[in-house]
Amino acid sequence: MAKTSLFDEFNAISQKEWKQKIQFELNGADYNESLLWESPEGIKVKPFYTAEDLDNDEIPIAATKKIWKIAQNIYAGNTDMANSKALDVLERGAESLVFTIPSDEIEIERLLKGIDVERVPVHFNLQFLSSAYLKSISSATKGIKPHFSYCIDIVGHLAQTGNWYFNLERDHGLLATILGENKDPILSVDSALYQNAGANRVQQLAYSLAHAHEYLNFMENRNLLKPFNGITFKVSVGSNYFFEIAKLRALRLLWKTLSHEYNIFSDCHILATPTKRNKTIYDYNTNMLRTTTECMAAILGGADTISNLAYDALYNKDNEFGERIARNQLLLLKHESYFDKVSNPSDGSYYIEALTHQLAEKALELFKSIEKGGGFLKQLKENTIQKKIKESAEKEQLLFNVQKEILVGSNFHKNEKDRMKNSLELYPFVKTHARKTLLEPVLERRLAEGLEQKRLGDE
How far apart are CA 377 and CA 158, in angstroms? Predict the structure, then answer.
């Protein structure tokens, strides 16, 4: 007896039939005005999606690894304290470490003492540029096979600070030396900077791609592409859940498209963290809700490593309680919500697939425009990138100011009795210092800053 499916009894319904039914139920209201909305990127979002929304010729999103790592950020200003903290968080559920190293005075052997670096992936976020320091790391781990990556991003440093570490020629010379001497992944692209500064998702993707292209072009000219050691994209994840899932998937797709032009067939590593842009100091517990959905989006979008943001990170110094809560959010998602059990869980969602390809197409178009304009570095120097990000940030800020962009506890459902003036251990607003720079830096700014400064002044 032939097997039949329950669904064989139902006729397939076309997109046109669905739309006709919806229009009938609207009782004369306009379908486009009532149910369609447009994102800041110019993507019109429909109330429903079907297989007809997907182009059969579109490049499929490669399945991501089932295992994503829970990372802990550690500032290594004090070597022994950083080492002690690393050992502690590994006992408490962290699976990967991200060390921010401020200077070459940090002794790597003491920093890594007792850490099984062959099992635990370690990302070094170096705040300086030194080939000698990387040699010291190699010497300290000689004879073993550590899982290291170095988040070296000279273009990102220029964008964030307005200056090179030394100068253009010396920075690129040191980068060439480091690339030639190390087999571990070296390059990093700080995509988080653009998100936290207010760039929309298409801009984030296009600028990240153009940013990465500067490195690929440089390496090709210096004959450093073979072998390619890998690249890390540091990504901030925002609050628009499905769009952020699609953003990370689009980033992989765009990297695959670009890297194949250079005959590179290695995947990128995505190191994701929640955005700071929508975080607040008032009603700060809502930050936990925001970071939870943002971490979920990072997981479903295919991030390789996720480092959560503590709910009080804006105004409190690093503390055990805030970091434990942030880490436990990821542990709950992984071990109790089983977010690590399915490879590429977003696959098959018509909505997410459609968003992914629309974001990728728009970002690719903007990327091509940047390249025609001389490339990412040239447009940074001409202030074009900064201007575009500012325009996007101002549009989002206006929506926040008129309560079309809602942050509960800040511009909506405020607790007027909430007091924060005496609770600030850190300055939570944009810091500006008068100094000479080669170009205007890209500044990170939160949506609620102006409102919070007024509330603090009124306390």
Answer: 9
